[in-house]
Each structure stands twice: as structure tokens, then as C-alpha cells.
């Protein structure tokens, strides 16, 4: 199992009971080149856990038909499983950050 996959599985287990309405922002975006990458590091998104039929880059009146360019993580349709969705970047949500720890 890829370490990011394991991390998201553990995080999902711990955080599902306290999920805020709307979910969380991850630092993933496809602004610029159309491919999803981590804005915090510039590296490509390799692991993903998209909802079925996502990302869909929905161009709606709500987002001035510009599409959805940021990765949101949340629980949808009363599911017990957290998954990813692409969403307009202007929504105010909580966020999850990665912290690097170095061994000495």
C-alpha cells in the first residue's frame, strides 16, 4: 500500500466523526496546466481517491462557467467513506496541511 494511501485511510478513520460541513481543502489544484499537482510542493498528484465521476471540472453558473480547479476532501451522500471532489477554489473550507519531520 502506498504511504499516502495508508495516511489518508488512517486520517479518514480518525476524522470522519468530526467532519465539518463542506469538508476540507487539500493543497491540490489544476490551475495553470490542467494536471493536478500539490500547490505546496509543485509535485504531481500521484495518489488520489476521487469520488465516482470526479474530477468533472463542472462549469456552472455558480463558478462563472470557469470550472472546478481545487481538491476538496469530504463525505458525500451520507457515505461513511471520505473521498475527493474537484470544487471551485473560492469556497471557505478548513484545510489539511502536511508537516515534514526529519530524523536526526
From TrEMBL:
<keyword id="KW-1015">Disulfide bond</keyword>
<dbReference type="InterPro" id="IPR018378">
    <property type="entry name" value="C-type_lectin_CS"/>
</dbReference>
<feature type="domain" description="C-type lectin">
    <location>
        <begin position="24"/>
        <end position="98"/>
    </location>
</feature>
<dbReference type="InterPro" id="IPR016187">
    <property type="entry name" value="CTDL_fold"/>
</dbReference>
<dbReference type="InterPro" id="IPR001304">
    <property type="entry name" value="C-type_lectin-like"/>
</dbReference>
<dbReference type="Pfam" id="PF00059">
    <property type="entry name" value="Lectin_C"/>
</dbReference>
<protein>
    <recommendedName>
        <fullName>C-type lectin domain-containing protein</fullName>
    </recommendedName>
</protein>
<dbReference type="InterPro" id="IPR016186">
    <property type="entry name" value="C-type_lectin-like/link_sf"/>
</dbReference>
Amino acid at each position: 500500500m502506498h504511504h499516502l494511501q495508508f495516511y489518508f485511510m488512517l486520517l479518514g478513520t480518525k476524522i470522519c466523526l468530526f467532519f465539518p460541513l463542506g469538508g476540507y481543502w487539500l493543497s491540490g489544484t489544476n490551475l495553470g496546466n490542467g494536471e493536478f499537482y500539490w500547490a505546496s510542493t509543485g509535485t504531481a498528484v500521484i495518489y488520489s481517491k476521487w469520488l465516482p465521476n470526479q474530477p468533472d471540472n463542472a462549469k456552472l453558473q455558480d463558478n462563472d462557467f470557469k470550472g472546478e480547479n481545487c481538491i476538496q476532501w469530504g463525505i458525500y451522500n451520507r457515505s461513511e467513506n471520505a473521498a475527493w471532489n474537484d470544487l471551485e477554489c473560492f469556497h471557505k473550507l478548513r484545510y489539511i496541511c502536511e508537516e515534514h519531520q526529519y530524523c536526526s
